[in-house]
Amino acid sequence: MDRVAKLASQKAVVIFSKSSCCMSHAIKRLFYEQGVSPAVYEIDEDSRGKEMEWALMRLGCNPAVPAVFIGGNFVGSANTIMTLQLNGSLKKLLKDAGALWL
């Protein structure tokens, strides 16, 4: 859990992902297309990935990926991020965290 918290606070937007997950790919793409450059951690390529996966699930992320942190705070998984995008509040979160300048 400490490792996830430490990694999540290192950049304005952090995404925990799996390289083979189509929803993770879609969420990363959403951020890239908005001009955001998130830190991405592919937990299936990390030697301690299983440990991180359990920590993300304890935070309430089920399935564990994609898990998105904005401004060091856990925001949610794909469903939450897409809801925020559709209702227009994702952009404000990104601006407040310093991930977007416009």
From TrEMBL:
<dbReference type="Pfam" id="PF00462">
    <property type="entry name" value="Glutaredoxin"/>
</dbReference>
<dbReference type="InterPro" id="IPR036249">
    <property type="entry name" value="Thioredoxin-like_sf"/>
</dbReference>
<dbReference type="GO" id="GO:0005737">
    <property type="term" value="C:cytoplasm"/>
</dbReference>
<feature type="domain" description="Glutaredoxin">
    <location>
        <begin position="13"/>
        <end position="75"/>
    </location>
</feature>
<dbReference type="InterPro" id="IPR002109">
    <property type="entry name" value="Glutaredoxin"/>
</dbReference>
<keyword id="KW-0676">Redox-active center</keyword>
<protein>
    <submittedName>
        <fullName>Monothiol glutaredoxin-S10</fullName>
    </submittedName>
</protein>
<comment type="similarity">
    <text>Belongs to the glutaredoxin family. CC-type subfamily.</text>
</comment>
<dbReference type="InterPro" id="IPR011905">
    <property type="entry name" value="GlrX-like_pln_2"/>
</dbReference>
<keyword id="KW-0963">Cytoplasm</keyword>
